[in-house]
Amino acid sequence: MDPYRIPLEFYVKETRIMTKNTIVVGLQWGDEGKGKVVDYLARDFQLDARFQGGSNAGHTVQVKDGKFVFHLIPCGLLHKNMIGVIGGGCVFDPDVFFHELEALEKYDPAIKERIKISKFCHMIMPYHLLLDRIREESKHGIGTTKRGIGPAYEDKYARVGLRIGDLYNPEYFEKKLRANISRKNLLLMEIYHAEPLSDGEIYARYINYAERLSSMVVDEHDIFAEAEKNDQKIIFEGAQGALLDINYGTYPYVTSSNTIVGSALTGLGISPLLIGRKLGVMKAYTTRVGQGPFPTEDETAVGKKLRKTGNEYGATTGRPRRCGYFDASVVKYSARLSGVKEIFLTKFDVLSGQEELKIAVGYSNAGDFDPFLADQLQPVYEKMPGFKEDISDCRDFQDLPSAAKDYVRMIEYATKLSVRYISVGADREATIEI
């Protein structure tokens, strides 16, 4: 046998790794229902890894024991066999984290033992929150959540950010913190005419956080190596949606991180071989929060009814979401960015009671969706009959009314994607598998 030839078993193992793991990403402007999707799928996995964003995420999960809103903690953790990883691509607000943890410990007192936080996470500091709020309240705001996400990522790429791992070198942390606050105070006082921040108070608070976080802080590469060794399955959890991607979204009305599949590689420091199934999540209609272009937005009674019936208010901020018709071109564009072929269609039950259903199948003044032209696009709609039946108890595709089935098939035809799951209610089990 040639000693330099790679054994067949290696290829078999690599193929098995690729097929067993799943990544979940949003294909619209966020708020697609990824929380329910990850929670629903998580029963078949042992590891849930969040790879980007921060506490601007609002993933809502509803089970028989109540409703939970996740911001930083991976939302598959309601399953008690699950380990949750907050990866280095995330920005981490300790204050938000501990409030979220306190709420979850009422459901599962041992949940803290299953949470792992990357030491590579950049931290959101009080000056990030203050700067975000001041900017948003100016005439130049773009509709952020005011959670300090953008300023934290700014510092990360300016190479002045503070990471969780820095907390365990107090001398270095203090030196870098004081330099940062000195620069931020100059900006706050001279440009924004705001009160300066105290470096001593912030240092003491974050050193206290360090002690409370110590049992959870890890190098996530060790976690993934152990998972591979033990043949565990991983679900990778994204936040926001593809149209909010910092590179490929409707810039500048986007988030501050990459929200597509490729972001998992850099946000967790993993090989592409670890990602197998790519599952896209999209609503049966379209919404977005904040400012920015939205070709199929409806500001008449239809949009208002969708907002009311779908309870379309931000899980993080409570802001009302803008609502409109399903845009197939937007989804095709997003799916191409992430290599998605399979879809989890959410909030389908919200369409019950609509007299007429419409799907935007293209634009009269353009070809495919282009973020640079998004505020000029004129949608061309395919009109279909609506359905009045309550579908929330349906658990099989054949149980749906014929008009509902036609709508799903039209979505598949218009997007060239396969709908594999349909959510017909907020509860975990209110799901149809096709």
Entry summary:
The protein has 434 residues and is α/β, with parallel strands linked by helices.
Amino-to-carboxy terminus distance: 47 Å
Structural class: alpha/beta
Low-confidence stretches: none
Q: What amount of the residues lies in strands?
A: 15-25%
How many strands, what sense, and barrel or not for the largest sheet?
10 strands, mixed
In spatial order, strands of the major sheet run 9-7-5-2-10-1-11-15-18-19
Globular, elongated, flat, extended or rod-shaped: what is the shape? globular
How big is the Rg? 22 Å
Keywords:
19 strands, single chain, globular, alpha/beta, 434 residues, 19% strand, 10-stranded mixed sheet
Q: What would you note in describing this structure?
A:
By secondary structure, this protein is an alpha/beta fold. Helix content is 32%, strand content 19%. It has 12 helices and 19 strands. It has helices at residues 8-20, 34-41, 94-105, 126-136, 149-157, 170-190, 199-213, 220-229, 263-268, 301-309, 328-338, 402-415, and strands at residues 22-26, 47-50, 59-63, 66-70, 83-86, 91-92, 115-118, 122-123, 217-218, 234-237, 277-283, 286-288, 322-324, 326-327, 342-346, 356-363, 379-385, 418-423, 431-433. The strands form 5 sheets. The protein has a 10-stranded mixed sheet, with helices on both faces. It has a 3-stranded mixed sheet with strand order 14-16-17. The longest helix is centred in the middle third of the chain and has 21 residues, at 170-190. The protein starts with 7 loop residues before the first helix and ends with a strand. The relative contact order is 0.15.
